[in-house]
Design a protein that fits this description.
Helix content is about 25%, strand content about 30%. It is α/β, with parallel strands linked by helices. Strands 2-1-3-4-13-12-11-8 form an eight-stranded mixed β-sheet, sandwiched between helices. The protein starts with a strand and ends with a helix.
């Protein structure tokens, strides 16, 4: 069973449908018992960093997520879900993230001809043998929607990068913790391969 954490985030349905298309059983829940007994966990998300952290705390899910990581349950953060796993974001100064991974979320710098938010398809540079990208080729295309990007402190956890005026740390992996800035559930066959690789861990 894959538990999709429900804290009123926006992209829960599309994540759920993608896993169901792969034949995976899912439950959308904020119940700590269901989350901590799941085989895998998804932390989805679209929206602002500060309000999302507020919702996680409101439902007591910040502690549940930390406990899930402590128990080594495979967890995948998607888009804002990736950002929340880190320490802070320029989007919401003074609001600490979950801090499970070290790094900060920065605004994509303004450049002539560069539209922000970054919306659309972009190729990935794969590195550090990320398990999510098993069987995928270099320069695989995935779908992004974001104005802020991750700069991880430890380059060894970065499994994919993308270029958009700056080097975006597009995916990370540490032990049983995984995260993608892009939306695998909206990234066609490449995205379904990524989700399938996660489900089969």
């Amino acid at each position: 069973m894959i538990a999709i954490i429900d804290y009123d985030a926006g992209n829960i349905k599309s994540v759920e449908k993608a896993f169901q298309s792969l034949g995976q059983r899912t439950v959308v829940t904020r119940d700590s018992g269901q989350i901590l007994t799941a085989d895998k966990i998804i932390l989805p998300g679209v929206g602002s960093f500060g309000s999302a952290m507020g919702q996680l705390k409101r439902y007591g899910l910040d502690g549940v997520i930390r406990e899930a990581v402590h128990r080594k349950i495979p967890l995948l953060g998607v888009c804002l879900g990736l950002q929340l796993l880190f320490e802070s974001s320029e989007e919401s100064p003074g609001v600490p993230g979950l801090g499970i991974l070290k790094g900060e979320i920065l605004r994509i710098p303004e450049e002539p001809g560069l539209k922000i938010p970054h919306i659309g398809w972009n190729s990935l540079h794969l590195q550090n043998e990320g398990r999510l990208f098993r069987s995928l080729k270099e320069q695989a295309y995935v779908y992004f929607v974001h104005s802020y990007y991750l700069k991880a402190k430890d380059p060894s956890i970065v499994t994919a990068t993308a270029e958009y005026g700056v080097c975006i740390h597009a995916s990370v992996e540490k032990d049983n913790l995984f995260a993608c800035q892009f939306h695998p559930e909206k990234s066609g066959d490449v995205g379904l391969t990524i989700l399938k690789n996660f489900a089969e861990l």
